[in-house]
Task: inverse folding
């Protein structure tokens, strides 16, 4: 399981021209589910993301987590994070991505674990397997890649 976490001032996601989720200050999480991932991978990542200290304190040092700031979290499924780039050529292979049914199950499980680690009312998501347009105003910029 791989997550690309961005500290954002705001972010939103549209499907077929309609906004499905929008957050203000917080975290945008792109989540890729790889073959062989299990619930314990989601447990570990959810805990890590909820506790990730990438927000500035009063001295401007990254010492606060999203909960300390009262921020929100938007989770977007992104199978394209699970690429196999070991072969020659320029077209990525997605053989490392989990089958859609299993990936969706783990994506939903991850969101549930994130809600348990944080505040259920402040967790939002995109639409699994949909063609999405994601609006991002990255803050910093701060982008962290986590893999479990």
Result:
């Amino acid at each position: 399981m791989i997550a690309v976490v961005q500290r954002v001032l705001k972010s939103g996601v549209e499907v077929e021209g309609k906004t499905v989720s929008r957050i203000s200050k917080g975290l945008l999480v792109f989540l890729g589910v790889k073959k062989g991932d299990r619930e314990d991978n989601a447990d570990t990542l959810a805990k890590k993301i909820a506790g990730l200290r990438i927000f500035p304190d009063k001295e401007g040092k990254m010492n606060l987590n999203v909960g300390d700031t009262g921020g929100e979290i938007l989770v977007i499924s992104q199978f394209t994070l699970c690429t196999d780039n070991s072969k020659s050529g320029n077209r990525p292979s997605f053989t490392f991505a989990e089958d859609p049914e299993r990936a969706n199950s783990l994506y939903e499980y991850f969101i549930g674990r994130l809600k348990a680690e944080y505040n259920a009312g402040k967790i939002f998501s995109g639409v699994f397997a949909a063609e999405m347009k994601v609006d991002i105003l990255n803050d910093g910029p701060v982008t962290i890649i986590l893999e479990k």
